């Protein structure tokens, strides 16, 4: 299989995002660029140069509607990945992956040919208050998931051994734990914040609803995608001085390697 360059990966991600945007527009489903994707749109008018993923958020009351539309309308090259339906999908939130590719995720112990493809992430955004009991419980379950089930590149034998013991004694399978997390996600309701409860920066993910405002579209490479109206307030809350580039040593992509699968003719293209 041919390994794709970062630029080739970004090109494919952009095409997935365009398809996602078109389906949302056709079905009146609001969404927002979030995290590094919004940062890229504002600071770089596209991808952060070293980035290899795209993140979007959808208010949870539209989430199931979106899943139904994606199942019906995605072209054959793309697949809706949900943990209950796709074997190696280990996130509670959904993804759209490119089935012509596979990501060599060393933390996922399965053959390369069975790995998920290059994908965009679709996070549910929950209306909540700062002190929401369901969200507090959800974050505790996320912590357990990371400590017990999440694979690691850690080479220290005793840490791998401890994880194996924890899995053996933990009363729930990972899939059952993820179902509990999704149930809690759906129980988070009401409030003046719209939160990415599966985000990486804790309380900073609790974004005042007013930051999202009216529909606003921002340039991203040769396309335009939706984002928060008060993008400056959003990005300052998440990143602080977001226009300042990080040190060179922190400019790292996420993937371990992305490969183009053989086509039905046995030839690789691109």
From TrEMBL:
<dbReference type="GO" id="GO:0009100">
    <property type="term" value="P:glycoprotein metabolic process"/>
</dbReference>
<keyword id="KW-0808">Transferase</keyword>
<protein>
    <submittedName>
        <fullName>Lipopolysaccharide cholinephosphotransferase</fullName>
    </submittedName>
</protein>
<feature type="domain" description="LicD/FKTN/FKRP nucleotidyltransferase">
    <location>
        <begin position="24"/>
        <end position="240"/>
    </location>
</feature>
<dbReference type="InterPro" id="IPR007074">
    <property type="entry name" value="LicD/FKTN/FKRP_NTP_transf"/>
</dbReference>
<dbReference type="InterPro" id="IPR052942">
    <property type="entry name" value="LPS_cholinephosphotransferase"/>
</dbReference>
<dbReference type="Pfam" id="PF04991">
    <property type="entry name" value="LicD"/>
</dbReference>
<dbReference type="GO" id="GO:0016740">
    <property type="term" value="F:transferase activity"/>
</dbReference>
């Amino acid at each position: 299989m041919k390994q794709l360059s970062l630029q080739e990966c970004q090109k494919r991600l952009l095409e997935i995002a365009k398809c996602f945007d078109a389906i949302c527009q056709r079905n009146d489903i609001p969404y927002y660029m979030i995290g590094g994707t919004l940062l890229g749109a504002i600071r770089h008018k596209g991808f952060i140069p070293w980035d290899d993923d795209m993140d979007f958020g959808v208010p949870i009351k539209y989430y199931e509607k979106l899943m139904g539309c994606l199942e019906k309308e995605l072209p054959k090259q793309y697949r809706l990945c949900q943990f209950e339906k796709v074997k190696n999908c280990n996130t509670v939130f959904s993804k759209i992956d490119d089935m012509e590719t596979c990501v060599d995720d060393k933390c996922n112990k399965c053959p390369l040919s069975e790995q998920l493809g290059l994908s965009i992430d679709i996070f549910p955004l929950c209306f909540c208050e700062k002190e929401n009991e369901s969200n507090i419980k959800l974050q505790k379950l996320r912590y357990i998931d990371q400590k017990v089930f999440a694979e690691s590149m850690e080479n220290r034998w005793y840490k791998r051994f401890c994880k194996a013991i924890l899995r053996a004694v933990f009363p729930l399978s990972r899939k059952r734990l993820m179902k509990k997390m999704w149930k809690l996600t759906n129980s988070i309701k009401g409030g003046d914040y719209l939160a990415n409860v599966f985000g990486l920066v804790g309380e900073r993910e609790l974004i005042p609803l007013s930051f999202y405002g009216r529909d606003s579209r921002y340039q991203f490479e040769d396309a335009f995608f939706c984002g928060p109206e008060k993008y400056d307030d959003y990005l300052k809350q998440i990143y602080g001085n977001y226009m300042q580039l990080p040190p060179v040593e922190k400019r790292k992509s996420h993937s371990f390697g992305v490969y183009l699968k053989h086509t039905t003719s046995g030839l690789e293209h691109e």
